[in-house]
Automatic annotation (TrEMBL):
It comes from the Bacteria. The gene is panB. This is 3-methyl-2-oxobutanoate hydroxymethyltransferase. It is found in: Cytoplasm. GO terms for molecular function: 3-methyl-2-oxobutanoate hydroxymethyltransferase activity.
Length: 277
């Protein structure tokens, strides 16, 4: 299987072959996803919510991202490894953005970074691209904006807002972004943006007309422990499976049927067991 690269993703858009993407935060999950032939693995800052148990993504640090990205890196061979820049790591200065982006590449093996925002991120995207760091944009519902927006709501529902999103997407492309994540926007808006861009769009809650789709692994596996938005489909009902197995383990230990004799080690034959007494 050939390594996925930013140019190969752009070629996929041209050929009409849809792009697949999932999040991962640890070695084992990354291996499962990579071995399933998924094209992009994102170490998302959704880490904060689905793995670390925070209310939102704002507390996630660059150290958190480095730690989890390094674990994921060890499990990925074919997929393109994209790592989110967390809140605060690209909001202070261009210099600081570059320093943090470079850390994600050099210390964790990221092959691209992702930043939330449109027009306001053009300078960052240009600077990262000039430093040879591939950048994914991310517009629409941007979870790092939750304090300003006051909640997670579908974006781009008015004509003006839809046009602004399309301008954001074009500006990111012009600045050098290699792909754009479209989150929580009407399918019609995502379709229009996708048709206008040369670089691929990866949708989440943005309908079926994007060039690719991404889901949070814990949403796909029913392991998120939060109410699922409309766009989530559970492809692997792992929570039900795990809960049943956990209860079986408890019962088997409590009633003495685990471990069985076949799951126990024995002294070699001929060694008198009475030496142990
Ligand atoms: O952090 C994340 O999981 C993301 C995806 C939902 C795109 O940014
Ligand atoms: Na994210």
């Amino acid at each position: 299987a050939k390594k996925v690269t930013p140019p190969s993703l752009i070629a996929r858009k041209e050929s009409g072959h849809r792009i697949t993407a999932l999040t991962a935060y640890d070695y084992g999950t990354a291996r499962l996803i990579d071995e399933a032939g998924i094209d992009c693995i994102l170490v998302g800052d959704s880490l904060g919510m689905v793995v670390l148990g925070y209310e939102d993504t704002l507390s996630v640090t660059i150290e958190d991202m480095l730690h989890h990205a390094r674990a994921v890196r060890r499990g990925v061979r074919r997929a393109l490894l994209v790592v989110d820049m967390p809140f605060g790591s690209y909001h202070v200065s261009t210099e600081d953005t570059l320093r943090n982006g470079i850390r994600l590449l050099k210390e964790a093996g990221a092959e691209a970074v992702k930043v939330e925002g449109g027009m306001d991120q053009v300078e960052n995207v240009r600077a990262l691209t000039a430093a040879q760091i591939p950048v994914f944009g991310h517009i629409g519902l941007t979870p790092q904006s939750v304090l300003r927006t006051g909640g997670y709501r579908v974006q781009g529902r008015s004509h003006a807002a839809a046009l602004a999103l399309r301008e954001d997407a074009l500006a990111l492309q012009e600045a050098g972004a290699v792909a754009v994540v479209l989150e929580g926007i009407p399918r019609e808006v995502a379709a229009s943006i996708t048709a206008r861009l040369r670089i691929p769009t990866i949708g989440i809650g943005a309908g079926p007309d994007c060039d690719g789709q991404i889901l949070v692994f814990q949403d796909l596996a029913d392991l998120s422990f939060r109410p699922s938005p409309k766009f989530v489909r559970v492809f692997s009902p792992a929570r039900t499976l795990l809960r049943a197995g956990l209860e079986e383990f408890r019962v088997a230990v409590e009633n003495g049927t685990f471990p069985a004799d076949s799951e126990s080690y024995h002294m070699p034959s001929g060694v008198p067991v009475d030496v142990l007494t």
